[in-house]
């Protein structure tokens, strides 16, 4: 297969699936991962896709538009479940915690034991999952419903958070950049998560390997606003070292 033909097919695959890993492309085209990285670098320069850590993202869907919940549920499922299992280990009886509207937070809600806790969330799915556990008190932010993510955002969601302080916040993001901090694809979600971080004693960032090195649309804050990152074993160890050098606590699930 000619190089140009392979690169055209890569663009088609990325646009169809919205995101693809380097390892997957390497197997599909029977070339080395280094060859795929060179292809992606060239295609990014031609503005045909966006490189992310470990793969590429389509530019056909604007970054400012949220990915539907059903699609997020099917992305990096194993990694998200591993991260959720590790995160639950940091929850203690009597804690007051925040869970955001990410799929990882939903997996965390499914995994939490039925112990005395207070959980503040802007996620319908998280609230519904925790409603099955009688010893957990659930507080919803209310606000404007985003049907794509089944979450509440907007002024009411933001102002409701001002009434509380919590022990721990477990939140996710669309990207973590060493220089530009953490970011979200949706500005309204970003503002809610900024509030969540502000009212928590300890902020846990839950993110799989694909989010590292990514800069998304709306900046949530700097790395100094995070206390601990929980990620999966596919994360680049060089990035982990760089984050640890900046004083961040990294847990690999």
UniProtKB/TrEMBL annotation:
Coiled-coil segments on the chain, per record: none
Keywords for this protein: DNA-binding, Transcription, Transcription regulation
Keyword Transcription regulation found: yes
Domain HTH deoR-type intervals: 3-58
UniProt key word DNA-binding: yes
Family annotation (InterPro entries): Carb_Metab_HTH_regulators, DeoR-like_C, DeoR_HTH, NagB/RpiA_transferase-like, Tscrpt_reg_HTH_DeoR_CS, WH-like_DNA-bd_sf, WH_DNA-bd_sf
Pfam families in UniProt: DeoRC, HTH_DeoR
PROSITE patterns reported in the protein's UniProt record: HTH_DEOR_1 (PS00894), HTH_DEOR_2 (PS51000)
UniProt cross-references to SUPFAM superfamilies, sorted A to Z: NagB/RpiA/CoA transferase-like, Winged helix' DNA-binding domain
Gene Ontology MF, one: DNA binding
Protein name per UniProt: DeoR/GlpR transcriptional regulator
Species assigned in the record: Thermoactinomyces mirandus
């Amino acid at each position: 297969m000619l190089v140009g033909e392979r690169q055209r097919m890569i663009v088609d695959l990325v646009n169809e699936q919205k995101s693809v890993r380097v390892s997957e492309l390497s197997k599909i085209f029977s070339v080395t991962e280094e060859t795929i990285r060179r292809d992606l670098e060239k295609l990014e320069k031609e503005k045909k896709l966006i490189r992310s850590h470990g793969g590429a993202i389509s530019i056909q869907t604007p970054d400012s538009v949220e990915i539907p919940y059903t699609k997020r549920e099917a992305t990096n499922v194993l990694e998200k479940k591993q991260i959720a299992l590790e995160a639950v280990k940091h929850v203690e009886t009597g804690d007051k915690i925040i869970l955001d509207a990410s799929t990882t937070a939903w997996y965390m809600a499914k995994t939490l034991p039925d112990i005395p806790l207070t959980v503040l969330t802007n996620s319908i799915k998280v609230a519904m999952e925790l409603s099955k556990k009688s010893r957990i008190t659930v507080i919803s932010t209310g606000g404007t419903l985003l049907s794509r993510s089944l979450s509440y955002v907007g002024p009411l969601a933001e102002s409701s958070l001002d009434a509380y302080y919590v022990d721990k916040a477990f939140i996710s993001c669309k990207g973590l950049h060493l220089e530009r901090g953490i970011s979200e694809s949706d500005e309204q979600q970003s503002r809610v998560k900024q509030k969540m971080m502000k009212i928590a004693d300890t902020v846990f960032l839950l993110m799989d390997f694909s989010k590292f090195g990514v800069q998304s649309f709306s900046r949530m804050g700097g790395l100094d606003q995070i206390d601990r990152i929980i990620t999966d074993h596919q994360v680049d160890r060089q990035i982990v070292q760089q984050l640890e050098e900046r004083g961040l606590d990294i847990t690999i699930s």
